[in-house]
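Course assignment 3, question 2. Fill in each field.
Student: A.L.
Task: Predict the tertiary structure for the chain below.
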Amino acid sequence: MKKLFTTIILAAGIQFFAQAQLTALPAGGNKRAFVGEQIGLADVTIRYNRPHVNKREGKIWGQLVPVGFVDPGFGTSKSSPWRAGANENTTIEFSTDVKIEGQPLAAGRYGFSVAYDPNECTLIFSKNSTSWGSFFYNPGEDALRVKVKPQPADKSVEWLRYEFVDQGPASAVVQLEWEKLVIPFKIEVDVVANQLASFRRELRSNKGFTWENWNQAALYCAQNKVNLDEALIWANQAVSPNFGGAQSFMPWKTKAAVLDSMGRKDEAAEAMKKGLPFATIFQVYIYANDLVLQKKVKEAFERFKMNYDKEPNNLYTQIGMASGYSAKGDYKTALGYAQKALTFATGPNIAIVNLAITDLQKGRDMNLD
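Answer field:
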């Protein structure tokens, strides 16, 4: 009886340890790989196993990778696409909502598979991302299907790979590359919507306890002419005493920019008046130059003069007066201030001031590019 009991325990132990496998290389030598990239604020990550051609040139597409949907002869599916790799499911994950070939797809992790056709491939993004291969593929779990045209490759790719190409601020093309074929698909994101969502989320965290972050969010909206009503709320938070920006020039300037974008010009001017007493010499100089670029010459000159009256022996007040007179067309007076500015210039500023002097000596506006 004791011997029988020991045999049962030993057999059970062998079965238990057989299920707890040690880490080893993937089956068939198909390397595990992952590739990712940020598109806008969206993190895109692809995880896959890399089969290799292995002397099967000309036998990959249409043979090893079948055309369309086939019965794999195992599992529950009788009509399966290719797993877009080897071994486990190929997966693709998006941290934000995206568009695939112009079609919307929610943030999340998806099983990725391909129904290959030499003329037009069907790409499938499945809500099931945990299967091994496509033996249990269920079309009812599809989140999205799109069709793309495969393209011939310039040279043969031995090990299957995914690459991000044609990157832009709001989009990139992912290419599945293997043997002499490329299957591309375009991913697009709504940069503005994602950025605003990020601002809203982060401003509710500890990042919302400084005026600089409220100002950053409001300024983004003003510069892009979007979400202006909420931007004004953010700007008011930035200039409020609660967050420490009430006596800083930048948040008042941002509030003025938001109001100006909303067409509320008088309120924008009032916000600037409140902020100017807190501005540094350099900040006033930059602001006045912005006014010059906006063709608001009278306002610009008033700011340059205010700066000069406060601190005349300064590079930025001298060159500011030169900019102001130059914008008014008085190049002779502007030249005198530019030459005085040169006595305060150091480093790369020397060359910049000399360029202004050269323009004025030739009777040209120094403010023009």
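Instructor remarks: The domain at 280-369 is CATH 1.25.40.10 (Serine Threonine Protein Phosphatase 5, Tetratricopeptide repeat). Residues 1-18 have pLDDT under 50 and may be disordered.
Grade: pending
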